[in-house]
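Take our chain:
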Amino acid sequence: MKIGDDESYLMIERRDDNDPYSGFSISAHCGSGDSIFTGSNGTAHFDQSDEAKRSFLEFKTLHRNETRINLTEGCFLALTRQSRGDIQVNFEIQRYHLQATLRGRVLVAGEDSTAFLQELGKMAYHSEA
């Protein structure tokens, strides 16, 4: 799943499509030309706690305006509703053994927000709702 535009985006992909419990690769590309930052974590797992699932579902069903989705190694996605239905996705990608962090944000346009939340729910929580 690609979130953002061609200049600044976040990519989240399951490492093994045949294994629903495999980890994820999360990577970010920010900028263009001579000003490019990139970072990735190829072994991330989504927080599977009941609290995390409930918070995401409440956000998805418009009962909450923001939610934070934690991943392993201190990575996270923080989703916030904006005007016109847009969703701002603040992110942090870390690799502990490298002592490196990349922070940024991307925007999901309002017309794409429903599909984005459905796909993210399937990836993170095996949710079809």
